[in-house]
Amino acid sequence: MSNVPNTSKSSSPSLTFLVLAVGAASFSMLQSLLAPVLPTLQSELKTSQSAVSWVLIAWLLSAAVATPILGKVGDMIGKAKTLVLALAAIGLGSLVAALAPSIELVIAGRIVQGLGGAIVPLSFGIIRDEFPPARVPSAVGVLSAVIAVGSGVGTILAGPIVDLFGWHGLFWVPLAVVAVTATLAQFFVPESPVKAGGTINWLAAALLAAWLIALLLPLSLGTRWGWSSPAVIGLFALAVVLAAAWVTVEVRSSNPVIDMKMMRLPAVWTSNLVALLFGAAMFAVWVFLPQLIQVPSSAGYGFGATVSEAGWVMLPMLVSMAVAGVFSGRLAQVVPFKLQLAGASAVIALSCVSLALLHASIWQVAVISGVYGIGLGLAYAALTSVIVQNVPASQTGTAIGMNTNIRTIGGAIGTAVMTAVVTAHQTANGVPEEAGFVTGFLLFAGVAALAMLVSLLIPGARRQVATAAVPVPAE
């Protein structure tokens, strides 16, 4: 098994990185691009609020299933080849949704789009395989920043895209971007020299998909269905049974989808636990900070902002996320990634406390969001770097795919808990009370503090990867 960078397609790491960054950003924006305009979709397609919510839920479930499984496929048959297929899936899903005359076909398009979730682990795996070791940490940091910022930029761009092109533009724009990116990938993303070989254990893959869906579905719909409803309790119980069956099959398999020995590596399980906690704290703030900003000022604490205005208030977060992610690799020369992760968690905890106590003025919220973004940017980059440093090259895509999935599960849990807390503190006319946001932010400050402690348990890297002198790959 060779791990020598392959230059048969491209001798330019910078061009390879650019293609990976655009592809990863395209997928990450799909996470938030539709959320602000669900009311528009509901009105234009003459559907119900319950039905239109599946535009988000269907994408989440599809991405959760596809990310680790297609990450495994990439490790087996080649990451570049699988990357092009993932980009094509986003393009096909975008085309279906853009032409859809009904909400059902929009949802179908979003399911196909979700298969593009594999772009994230595949891109990091390609960096690991193709770039000189000295440039891997910085490249990972910059790509992490691109992914993190892309998730937030979608919220800001959604309104202008709809104003210019209508709701169909939310799908035509990604289609155009991924069509160009997939074409460029054919020329500038070399095929990985590191392949695990083997075949997919389809029983294990089916069980993995089944327990993820059984877990994420009630987390997404528990507030609507009722947390004590038979459907929610039954699905949670089913998720436990299916997860246990999945682990049993994987342990006994000679060719597992997710190698349980790899998952038990100290650096991997601790990083995955941090990802779960980090995802919970991140999504709780990401989803509910805009809602706090949009609360009518007549409630005594909100600012009555529009969706677009709330997005601009959070712009400092996006900027600081980008800067922190870019410099994570360089910072690793003096601060190991595990300590970066611990520091990032501490910054997130401090920011949550600050949001709970200091939100009387819009400038306070903007400044705190900027500080919060520093924690997010460092955490994104450091989490991925810890995985890259501690798993075999042939399992990079699988390991990062599972870590990404666990962060998504944490995000679903965090959003569900924050929703329950805020919903429990409402006025008679349904306006959230300030106490709900304060309680929720303080709760997730504690979650972030726990992530900080777990970060300190992460062992040192199995291999020392030199750090780049510049933040992006050079020619």
Automatic annotation (TrEMBL):
Gene3D superfamilies: MFS general substrate transporter like domains, Multidrug resistance protein D
Annotated coiled-coil segments of the chain: none
GO CC entries: membrane
Keywords: Membrane, Transmembrane, Transmembrane helix, Transport
Keyword Cell division: no
Subcellular location: Membrane
Major facilitator superfamily (MFS) profile domain location: 16-463
A Pfam family this chain is assigned to: MFS_1
Topology class, membrane: Multi-pass membrane protein
Transmembrane parts of this sequence: 12-31, 51-71, 83-101, 107-127, 139-158, 170-189, 201-221, 227-247, 268-289, 309-327, 339-360, 366-388, 408-425, 437-458
GO molecular function: transmembrane transporter activity
PROSITE patterns tied to this protein: MFS
Domain of life: Bacteria
Protein's name in the database: MFS transporter
Native organism: Devosia insulae DS-56
